[in-house]
Amino acid sequence: MDQIVIQGGRRLKGEIRISGAKNAALPLMAASLLTADTLSLSNVPHLADIATMARLLAQHGVEVHMNGGAENGFDGGVLDLKAGTISSVVAPYDLVRKMRASVLVLGPLLARVGEAKVSLPGGCAIGTRPVDLHLHGLELLGAEIVLEEGYIHASAPKGLTGAAVVFPKVSVGATENLLMAACLARGETQLINAAREPEVTDLGECLIKMGAEIEGLGSDKITIRGVEKLHGAEHAVVADRIETGTYAMAAAITDGELDLIGARADHLDAVIKVLEEAGVTVEETNRGLHVKRTNGPVRGVDVMTEPYPGFPTDLQAQTMALMSTAEGAAMITESIFENRFMHVPELARMGANVNVHGASAMVRGQPQLTGAEVMATDLRASVSLVLAGLAAQGETVLNRVYHLDRGYEQLEQKLAACGAAITRRRAPQ
Ligand code: UD1
């Protein structure tokens, strides 16, 4: 197993090209199941989760071709997906357990062939994360759903029918599953209290290119008029706002200065507001974002995670690392996921002072973090330890790096090119 080793205390300076968003690419890939034609996606990041989704789609019968990518600079890959025929409607446990987003094949399979059998994702490191909203929504569209032997067995032999679906809670994945399913349902579907995340909008825009009739993307009420059939399309995956926010915080925590090329400032309003309140300069440029902090530690700022356009839960751990080095205190409240503070004990090993009370964490900034051997627990938690390591005095060794590889393309290369002392090595046995 690999480790990442960081010698902390170096200012970052330079340019980082922002990759396509993993969380947009995954549902876009699942959308290929909706048509027999080729869906061609560009700006697809090279990540373990993308490979898992490609394997899942391949075993449903999708022809997958990946070109270009990391070897050619950071240009992102082009992924051609062609679901000429669906050869299997089963999404097996060994793939679904690796990645919850596998459940996104449920809606498209059901809409295209009237049946899907998807393993229940099970618990995961950041809380129970049920799929009840996905299932209830599909039932409203006429699917019959049975849970048997750990699998969701959904069927709609006569096809799906449009309906009004009111989500009791905002869910990105459930909105995406329903959005895809409704494109091929008979009649009109309304998704009410829908997720407004840019990744949902990116999916919707691609579906429109494929021939879908969708209105209200980016709002909490999306209307879809079902069509007989979708066709192929070309679509470039939207820039990753979470990767952007992570590197903006890397600049801030190292008293550095970074140009984030291709970043979308309009997707980061809530994050930019927090960074500015903390004393970080964030400027939109014609190439993306320029982030700079050169006057010592940031100021403590309270943060609460919320559905978009609120502050993203996927930047909560990174914000905590940043606030661990702030002047003053910061109250960080997690309102989306239970049990998403697993990075706290690891940050504490590096000298962070954090007290958790229920869904809130009181972070008292320290003048200096210190390097330590730490363990990644999930994707965003692991990158928060990288941020802390960049700022810490001495050496930080991060174990269980595979979590990072699920969501950060070329992390060490991107940071090293800006002056970080960061390398990957095989863990000693
Ligand atoms: C997506 C993102 C993930 C991000 C999350 C919230 C992808 C691949 N992943 O995950 O990185 O952290 O949005 O922004 O895009 N819930 C239910 N029942 C359901 C579905 C969800 O109760 O059927 C709950 C969840 O437990 C959670 C909340 O709703 O508390 C939001 O989850 P959701 O938006 O669905 O997250 P994901 O789509 O899984």
Question: Can you describe this structure in just a few lines?
Answer:
This protein is an alpha/beta fold and 429 residues long.
Write the layout of secondary structure elements.
Elements: E1 2-7, E2 13-17, H1 22-31, E3 38-44, H2 48-59, E4 63-68, E5 77-82, E6 90-91, H3 93-96, H4 106-113, E7 115-119, H5 132-140, E8 144-148, E9 151-155, E10 164-166, H6 172-183, E11 188-192, H7 198-209, E12 213-215, E13 221-225, E14 233-236, H8 241-253, E15 257-261, H9 269-277, E16 281-285, E17 288-292, E18 303-304, H10 316-323, E19 329-333, H11 343-349, E20 353-357, E21 360-364, E22 373-375, H12 379-391, E23 395-399, H13 402-405, H14 411-416, E24 421-426
Parallel strand pairs: 2-15, 3-14, 6-7, 10-11, 18-19, 22-23
Antiparallel strand pairs: 1-23, 1-24, 3-5, 4-5, 7-9, 8-9, 11-13, 12-13, 15-17, 16-17, 19-21, 20-21
The chain binds uridine-diphosphate-N-acetylglucosamine.
Describe the structure.
With 429 residues, this protein is α/β, with parallel strands linked by helices. 30% of the residues lie in helices and 26% in strands. The protein contains 14 helices and 24 strands. The strands form 6 sheets. The chain has a 4-stranded mixed beta sheet with strand order 22-23-1-24. α5 runs parallel beside α6 and α8 runs parallel beside α12. It is elongated, with a radius of gyration of 21 Å. The relative contact order is 0.16. The structure holds uridine-diphosphate-N-acetylglucosamine (UD1). The site of uridine-diphosphate-N-acetylglucosamine has 21 residues, from α1, α5 and α6.
